[in-house]
Amino acid sequence: MADAQPPPNTAAANDAASVPSKERLRTRCCYCLCKTLWIFLVLIIVLVMLVILVLYIIVTPSSFRFHVTDARLTLFDYTANSTLRYNLVLNITASNPNKKLKIYYDVVQANAFYGGVRFSTTDVNMPWNSYLQDKKSSNLFSAVFSGQRVMALDRKQVSEFHEDDKDGVFPIDVKIRFTIRFRLEAFQFGYYYPRGSCKLKVPFTSKVEKVASFNPTKCQIDF
Length: 223
Hints:
The protein is an alpha+beta fold.
């Protein structure tokens, strides 16, 4: 009579089969959780970008406007030792066209050029509210260039200087460097670095008479 075979251990087999299933289930759960978190993060980023875009469209910053309204040149003398002595005062109007944004002027620095050669640099005098300009407003300020500088002009430039001196009107270019921020209610944003260029025809003003009148000039702002 053949020996009877013991019945298989079904409980152990089931436990062994259930181990991979539990690991697969745990792996699947981790994958689903990570996928859900990633989708949620992407949705938040997209939502934030959309909000920023909408706000930017609503309050898109517009470039300010600069006009040189008056210029007084009381000294502009090029001596035989290649030294330019000068005294130039500019009155400038700054306009903020934005309906919702105020402007902080952190740096406003002006450079004056004659014949393509820089002869002076000065900080612009900003007299209002610690350089804060209100929305839809215009303000006045001034730039003063005074002193002397050695300038090595060539023969052609010296000849042109004498011609301008004879006419009593000097072509002077003023380039302005800005560092500004915008303010929306209590929020400030950005640091912008626009550049301004003002091509001026400045009449020489003596103590006795003024040779010609200065024409107000709009400055080109590269925003």
